[in-house]
């Protein structure tokens, strides 16, 4: 299949396993599930028909984060001695959020039974969602097999000047009273009430995630970035005898955990390359992440979800 815009779902299959992609909803994953013993098992929270009809990325199973992850304070930052103002990009949040690729359609490229490729191109303009002043292109490649769903993201700066850049994915997992999160991180970024990072330091959740039992998804009220992530995390449902492990390559060196007390049905454990507001943070690059792509420079990295029972 040649690259084209599509408003239909793309289905990948491998045995009893299935992935649904929604290219028209920000290049999102709409579902990742499988049939086992006659019943459907959701590895990611599936999109509802309502979310699909509304083309709401926040209602998908997972969506891409490009060309930056999380928030940018007041939708403004300085780069190369110039002000970058994103306040008119149509993002309905006080602070610019997650870039623009999640709010625009992606083109469908090559598709086979268990693999697919989605493409995205951005050219700056004054239109909503196009205020990012750097041209770039991106690709997501999805590969499903008997145990793993692998996602490979690539991006290239098409501008004639350097471009600040970050990337990631925003998965939602089924959250129950027994859901546990296992991960090793060095520190948690503490935040302001409107979720902008202030400093990285200790928090009880750091030790809880590293413990043998893992952290209960209900233990803390979290919407935080984590530094010094080992690039692997497991979400487990021990009462159901199953778990899914996220493994990521560099530069996905940071992790976000979203487990809000106000919404006990929501749980995100996200691989990202930069912490929130990294372009405004005056701290070491290793702690905040992010990159600068030279004109024509590309970046490519993969992450994968591996599932298991027992």
UniProtKB/TrEMBL annotation:
Query: Record's superkingdom?
Result: Bacteria
Recorded hits in InterPro entries, A to Z, give: Aldose_1/G6P_1-epimerase, Gal_mutarotase_sf_dom, GH-type_carb-bd
> Per its UniProt record, what CDD domains does this chain match?
Aldose_epim_Ec_YphB
Any one Pfam family match given in the protein's UniProt record, by short name:
Aldose_epim
Name of the protein described by the UniProt record: Aldose 1-epimerase
Q: Native species of this protein? A: Caballeronia jiangsuensis
Traced from the root, the source organism's taxonomic lineage reads:
Bacteria, Pseudomonadati, Pseudomonadota, Betaproteobacteria, Burkholderiales
